[in-house]
Amino acid sequence: MKLRTWPVRLVLGCIAAGALVYGFTHGKLSEDEAKPPAPPASLSIWVYSKGWEDMVHAFGQRYPHIDVQIRSFRSYEQLYTELLASISAGAAPQLAEIHSFYGIAQLASTGAALPVGNVLTAGKPAFLPAFSAAFRYRDEDWAVPFGGSVPVLYYREEPFKRLAGRAPALSTWEEVRQTLSLVKEPPGEEVSKGYGTMTVDKELPWYLASLSYAPKESGGPAAERTRSALELWRNLTHESKLMKPLQHDRAASDFINGKAGMYVGSSDKLPTIERYIGGKFSFDLAKLPAWKQEALLPGVHGLVALKSDPERLKAAQSFVQEITAPEAQSALWNTVGLIPAREDVIGKLEEESALSERLRRILSWLPSLAGRAPRDDDYERWKRTEHMLEQIELNPQEPVEDVGMLY
C-alpha cells in the first residue's frame, strides 16, 4: 500500500508548492499593477443656440474627468417642450439652455429646477440687472444668465446714401418708412433688388413687445401700447407694403442676399451677417426705432440646472462656473455675439480701444435695458402673439382683440 500511495502524495505536494509560488509571485505583481482609472463623471447638457463646441472643448481640457454629452435642438421651442417631457419621464439632463422669452416660471413650478444658489457655489457675480430679472420668479433666481442680445435694425448703406445724399435717419418708424419710400420709385435698379423693403426675424413676439414695452405698466395703458404696435405691423405689411407677409424664416438670408434693404433682428446676429456679407456691400445697424417703447427688452440666454445625484450636480456646478468666468464671457462676445452677462466684463470691453464702432454702439444701449419678469403663461402668450401677427399679415381687415393676452 505504501509503495502505491507515494506517487499520489508527490503529485499533491507539487501542486501545493506551485500554488505557493504563484501566490508569492503573481499575487505580488497584481498588487504592484496600476489600478484602472475611475470612470469619468458624466454631464448631460441640452442646448439650442450655436457656438457651444469651443466652450465644451475648453471645459473638457480643464476637467478631463468629466464626460460632457451635448444634445442640440433646432429651436428653443423644441428644446423646451422636450425638456418638460423628460422631466415627467424622470430622464432630464443636468443642465439646459433656457431663454428669457418663456419657460422659466413653468420649470420652477415643476419642482425639478434648482435655484441658482445651488449652482453658483463660488459666489454670484454681478450680472446685468435686466439679465438677472429675466429669470427671477417668486423671489428666487432659477437660471444663470450667460449672455444676451438686443433688437436692432440692420440696413444697407449705399442706396439710401446715394438717394438722400447722407446716412439715413432711423430713430423713429416714421423715418424708417420715409427712408424706404425713397427707393420704392425709379430708378428701377433699387426696386428690382428689393432695397425698398424690410424683413423681420422670426422671434416676432419679442419685437412686437419691444415696440410697446414700458416697465411696470399694466391695464389699459399697456393694452393701448400693444394695440398701437399691432397697427404699425398692419401698416408695414399692407398700407405701406414695406414688409412682405410671412417671410420671417428667411429674414436674415434675404438681407444678406440683397433682397431687402432693412432687417430687424437680434444683435447677436452681427457676426453672422459680417461673415456672410463679407464686403459684398456696406451695411450698418441702428437701435430699434422708437414707437411706443420706453426701454429696450433684451433676449437673455441662461442655464437652468435640474435635480440630479451629487456627482452630476458637482459636474454641472463646474460647467456653470466655467461659462460665467470672465474669459468665457469675452469669448462668447467675440465669437457668437452674445452680450456678456457680467457687468465687470462689459466694463472692460468698453475700455478696449480696438472695439469696433458697431459693437461699441450696442454696448452704449445697455443702460436703456429693462428687465421683464417671467410669468406662468408666457409660452401661451407667445403662441397667441405669433398667431395674431400671422393673421394680421394674411388679412388686412383682421380685428385686433384680447391684446391683454398677448406677449
From TrEMBL:
InterPro entries: Bact_solute-bd_prot1, SBP. Signal peptide: none annotated. Gene3D superfamilies: Periplasmic binding protein-like II. It holds the Pfam family SBP_bac_8. It comes from the Bacteria. PANTHER family: ARABINOSE-BINDING PROTEIN-RELATED, DIACETYLCHITOBIOSE BINDING PROTEIN DASA. This is ABC transporter substrate-binding protein. It comes from Paenibacillus elgii. The lineage of its organism: Bacteria, Bacillati, Bacillota, Bacilli, Bacillales.
